[in-house]
Amino acid sequence: MGLFVLLGEVNDVQIRKEAWETEGEQKKETKRMKIVVIGAGAMGLRYGVLLQEAGNDVHFVDTWEPNVEEIRKNGGVHVWRDGKDERFVKVSISYPEDYHETPELAIVFVKDMHTVETMERCQHFISEQTYVLTNQNGFGGAEYIARFVPRTHIIAGTAMIATVMKGPGKVDFIGKRGGGHVHIVRVEGEPNDFIYKVAAEMEKALMHPTVQKDYMGTVWTKLVFNSVVNTLCTLMNIKMGQFAAYKNAKEMSRKLIYEAYEAIDAEGFKMEVTRDELVEQVMYVSEVGNPLHYPSMHQDMSTNRPTEVDYINGAIVRLAEKHGLEAPYHSMLVDLVHLKEESRKYNEE
Ligand SMILES: NC(=O)C1=CN([C@@H]2O[C@H](COP(=O)(O)OP(=O)(O)OC[C@H]3O[C@@H](n4cnc5c(N)ncnc54)[C@H](OP(=O)(O)O)[C@@H]3O)[C@@H](O)[C@H]2O)C=CC1
Ligand SMILES: CC(C)(CO)C(=O)C(=O)O
């Protein structure tokens, strides 16, 4: 099926099938996975709640005080689905310093630029056996984690799942239950039993995981996707569907994706999809997948926080420069986003 191929899953059908086939046995044989989620923002809560509801033992740590205090006070979080069907989910949360157990899996969902300072506060509970998973956007998260954790124990990847933090202790899961998918990949080493165990838990949580084999290709494919959608929606203050509705949206996407792929091809990354397939994916996910979503960078812009543009479009510019190339569209977008970040102070006056 066309989209299936576009989303880069075709190479992994076999791997995915195996994860499905072993799921029933694993349910019987394996105990629940002990998971700590580092960063109880939008995506941390999404993964943590879904994995908890799939039967795992999940604890959250966060450094954002109003969030920790609100969740503690209430004993859980309020969850919406596309702004509707509010429900309350009990969760346990603490500051990193107050957590002293040994998780099998730590899932990092802070913004790229906060990864190092957060990992410093978490390293006491990361044992030699702990695997650390990140599905942060942009290029950098897994590399920062590698300062604290052996590369063989880092699982990187990407999430085509949209989530919005409505305020401390309040999260909106965008998209239908079971919509979206994640790609996971070991930063170093072939897929092993542990990554399949994680995939099986994700499958139970209806997150539709695919185990990939190429770290850089996996991360950079989503990075280029975000370099179009996150950045343009943030600059224009629009939802993904509103971007897709613009008559020249496809041509704009094509220009940005082609420019990025020049640098990527020079570096030799093995991307999940071709440049034209990625153009189609941007249009499809914006139009059909998440038309009502304001991408995460937009959420940062509107809550007066720094964006991840340096890890997304900025990473493309740096890769181009490394190969003596120019990336003028992406370079301009980086400046426009930073200009908009700075301009917020004038709007407040
Ligand atoms: N949201 C999405 O749909 C998707 C996001 N991602 C990626 O996942 C990673 C995490 O993003 P996401 O979950 O969206 O991040 P959030 O902004 O929701 O949460 C991340 C952290 O930011 C801080 N924070 C959140 N909201 C506020 C606020 N209003 N005021 C002050 N601080 C706040 C919190 O801790 P602290 O202040 O200690 O940092 C929180 O733990 C990023 O790399 C993102 O690109 C990937 C796919 C989809
Ligand atoms: C757009 C999305 C959800 C990918 O689908 C994303 O990565 C984000 O909001 O940052």
TrEMBL record:
Its EC number(s): 1.1.1.169
Pfam families (alphabetical): ApbA, ApbA_C
Tree of life domain: Bacteria
Ketopantoate reductase C-terminal domain boundaries: 214-341
UniProt xrefs under InterPro entries: 6-PGluconate_DH-like_C_sf (IPR008927), 6PGD_dom2 (IPR013328), ApbA (IPR003710), Ketopantoate_reductase (IPR050838), KPA_reductase (IPR013752), KPR_N (IPR013332), NAD(P)-bd_dom_sf (IPR036291)
Annotated metabolic or biological route of this protein: Cofactor biosynthesis; (R)-pantothenate biosynthesis; (R)-pantoate from 3-methyl-2-oxobutanoate: step 2/2
Positions in coiled-coil regions: none
Keywords: NADP, Oxidoreductase, Pantothenate biosynthesis
Domain Ketopantoate reductase N-terminal: 35-175
Record's catalysed reaction(s): (R)-pantoate + NADP(+) = 2-dehydropantoate + NADPH + H(+)
NCBIfam families for this protein: apbA_panE
Recorded family membership: Belongs to the ketopantoate reductase family.
Function noted in UniProt: Catalyzes the NADPH-dependent reduction of ketopantoate into pantoic acid.
Protein name: 2-dehydropantoate 2-reductase
